[in-house]
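Lab meeting, item 3. Inverse folding demo.
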């Protein structure tokens, strides 16, 4: 069976993802990029809240995990994702305004995060593992995980869309 604390680890990743996108949206003066990044940021916040609720169905609270526990459960994936998100957040915070050049540097990293190393791959993996688990979770949990997975695909496509517009 999958360690249900995985939901709390994903809660933390989604919170950091949300924080990054919202910060970037606030720091850019490119309206369409800002709007899309806010959408993704608030979507990620929603995911964070949903993963927290999933954890509660297993009787877990956020204090049940820390970074070390998440690294034990998820391996280097978790650590790599946190480092990437923290690094990008630091980079965004150091800038007064994120212009097109800044976004051209940062957004490809987010495409990579959303596509492979990041949320999309892992949420898909979690949905698969939960659905194959002998102790079947509720139909609602499966449905929500599938919807989050679909959201992650949409996030990747939206970031690519921003990139294509600013590369013009």
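The presenter then showed the designed sequence:
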């Amino acid at each position: 069976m999958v360690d249900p604390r995985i939901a709390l680890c994903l809660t933390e990743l989604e919170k950091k993802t949300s924080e990054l996108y919202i910060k970037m949206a606030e720091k850019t003066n490119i309206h369409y990029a800002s709007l899309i990044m806010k959408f993704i940021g608030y979507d990620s916040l929603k995911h964070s809240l949903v993963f927290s609720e999933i954890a509660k169905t297993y009787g877990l609270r956020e204090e049940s995990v820390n970074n070390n526990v998440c690294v034990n459960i998820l391996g280097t994936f978790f650590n790599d994702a946190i480092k990437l998100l923290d690094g990008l957040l630091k980079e965004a915070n150091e800038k007064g305004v994120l212009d097109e050049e800044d976004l051209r540097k940062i957004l490809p990293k987010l495409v990579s995060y959303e596509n492979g190393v990041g949320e999309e791959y892992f949420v898909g993996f979690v949905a698969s593992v939960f659905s194959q688990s002998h102790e079947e979770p509720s139909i609602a949990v499966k449905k929500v995980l599938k919807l989050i997975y679909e959201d992650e695909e949409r996030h990747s496509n939206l970031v690519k869309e921003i990139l294509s517009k600013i590369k013009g």
